[in-house]
Specification:
alpha/beta, five-stranded mixed sheet, two-stranded parallel sheet
Length: 241
């Protein structure tokens, strides 16, 4: 009978003395938008044009001209031919359109006195499956509803069960594996006047919209050259040496 308190005290002491890493906890519940249509690209372009316009007013550059520079992952270097992604090309057009709509002087060529607007897209891929947990109180609300409605008419129970199922489904969903970070900068004389980074979820199967196409490369075969009779069968993008 006296061994149980001694055992409990021993466990408590061991836990208090043992070292360990901090317990992992989730961030507070938040929301993040999901890009699923070209219209969403236009919504972002319009919002950025508005923020750029406000920044031009604040920095007393409202009369300055701007130039939207297309970059592929490197702000200091332009995209190679046929390298831009679908999003990259479309977003530049949408941003220029919205800048013009705001009345911002926008050039089609870079001049020394122009303010550069740069943007780039980073694709983030998560290997782990990420499940969105229930919001606090949802499980309690569902449990309480089941207890309260256990004697309700059958038809009402069916309807309520459907509502609770929708509630649970909305809270317990599996997110995709891809996110994108879109960073937009306003640069003048190598100084940042404005910089914004926007993060969105995207559908897994749509990630190629945001991936820049790699430049055309040649495959070099480190082998003996084939006979002349077979030379015509070598693909055009491969070189034998």
């Amino acid at each position: 009978m006296h061994l149980l308190p001694l055992f409990i005290c021993t466990i408590v002491l061991l836990n208090s003395c043992a070292g360990g890493i901090p317990d992992p906890i989730d961030f507070p519940q938040s929301e993040q938008q999901k890009m699923q249509a070209s219209h969403h690209w236009d919504v972002l372009a319009k919002d950025l044009a508005n923020r750029i316009n406000n920044e031009l007013i604040i920095t007393d550059n409202i009369e300055s001209t701007v130039f939207v520079k297309q970059t592929c992952g490197n702000e200091s270097k332009p995209c190679e031919p046929h390298q831009t992604s679908s999003f990259n090309e479309a977003f530049r057009d949408l941003l220029i359109t919205n800048l013009v709509d705001f009345g911002i002087p926008t050039r089609n060529q870079l001049k020394d006195d122009s303010i550069e607007i740069q943007y780039k897209v980073q694709i983030v891929h998560h290997n782990a499956k990420r499940i969105r947990a229930f919001e606090p109180g949802v499980l309690t609300a569902i449990s309480a509803a089941i207890v309260v409605l256990r004697n309700a008419p059958a038809e009402f129970l069916i309807l309520t069960a459907g509502v609770m199922a929708d509630l649970a489904n909305a809270n317990l969903t599996q997110n995709g594996h891809y996110e994108i970070i879109i960073t937009t900068s306003m640069v003048s004389q190598n100084k940042y006047l404005f910089r914004a980074s926007d993060i969105y979820y995207i559908n897994d199967k749509d990630f190629y919209h945001y991936r820049d196409v790699a430049g055309q490369t040649k495959t070099i075969q480190l082998s003996t050259p084939p006979p002349k009779s077979r030379a015509s069968s070598v693909p055009a993008n491969e070189t034998d040496i």
